[in-house]
Specification:
By secondary structure, the protein is an alpha/beta fold. The chain is built from eight helices and eleven strands. The protein has one domain: TIM Barrel, CATH 3.20.20. The strands form three sheets. Strands 1, 2, 3, 4, 5, 8 and 9 form a seven-stranded parallel sheet that branches. Strand 8, helix 7 and strand 9 form a beta-alpha-beta unit.
Length: 251
């Protein structure tokens, strides 16, 4: 059975932003009111668009996290309960939460809240981030990757256990009680990958994967590696056959 998911980028409106940006520092009440009259309907139009995915037959919707001017979703998790309130069955998540920007243990608590507020429809997606964005805040790419890997350890542990301890390079704590807990027994996790190595790591975690911006040949290499590693790890529930071979589905 093939499931259809929508991936959405919440584009900045340059026309709307110019209203407030051109006002400079300490904008007048009139400038703010003009901005509000345009930006609030713009947000509502996107909420209507995303909610229509359920009516159009999509199984799930994944938003994205971006910063510094390109999109309006620096905190996409805030948008998910608003979409959940307008839908009934649509699975919802972010593809993905950029872990190097976040406090890992606090994110576990936020995931618990979101799963409750979405009625158990949350999908937990993570991403290592974009080097170009890291450069703007002086975050070395190597440090961002290390933060991502350590945050994944905390996230995975926190989703499985209500009380966790961790001692690493960036976080050190003992016996943290992380509440509220998700209402799904086994909340699905996703991660973005663009390399064979990342695909294998995701398969060992039992995570779903998404990729893009790669030639078809490389996409095949990534998913072949993912399927192979998932089979080794035993993270499989069923498989289906096509004319091109067997596709393995992780738990």
């Amino acid at each position: 059975m093939i499931k259809s998911w929508a991936f959405e980028f919440f584009f900045v409106s340059r026309e709307i932003e110019n209203i407030i940006m051109s006002a400079g520092g300490n904008p007048s009440e009139a400038a703010c009111a003009n901005y509000a009259s345009k930006i609030i309907p713009y947000f509502n139009a996107y909420l209507d668009l995303w909610s229509s995915a359920e009516r159009l037959g999509f199984d799930g919707l994944l938003l994205s996290e971006h910063h510094f001017g390109g999109g309006y979703s620096p905190s996409p998790n805030i948008l998910l309960p608003l979409i959940a309130a307008r839908t009934n069955t649509l699975r919802l998540g972010v593809m993905g939460m950029v872990l190097p920007y976040h406090n890992a243990w606090r994110l576990v608590e936020e995931v618990g809240m979101l799963d409750i507020l979405t009625g158990g429809r949350l999908e937990v997606g993570t991403a290592a981030g974009i080097p170009g964005e890291f450069q703007k805040i002086g975050l070395p790419t190597a440090e961002a990757r290390a933060r991502n890997d350590e945050a994944l350890q905390i996230l995975d542990a926190g989703l499985k256990n209500p009380v966790i301890s961790h001692h690493g390079q960036f976080w050190n704590f003992d016996d943290l009680a992380l509440v509220p807990r998700p209402i799904q027994a086994n909340i699905p996790v996703w991660t973005t990958v663009i390399s064979v190595e990342s695909a294998r790591k995701a398969a060992r975690r039992g995570a779903k994967i998404a990729t893009g911006f790669l030639p078809n040949e490389q996409v095949k290499e990534v998913f072949d590696a993912y399927n192979e590693e998932a089979a080794k790890a035993g993270n499989l529930t069923w498989c289906w056959k096509s004319g091109q071979g067997v596709k393995l589905i992780p738990t």
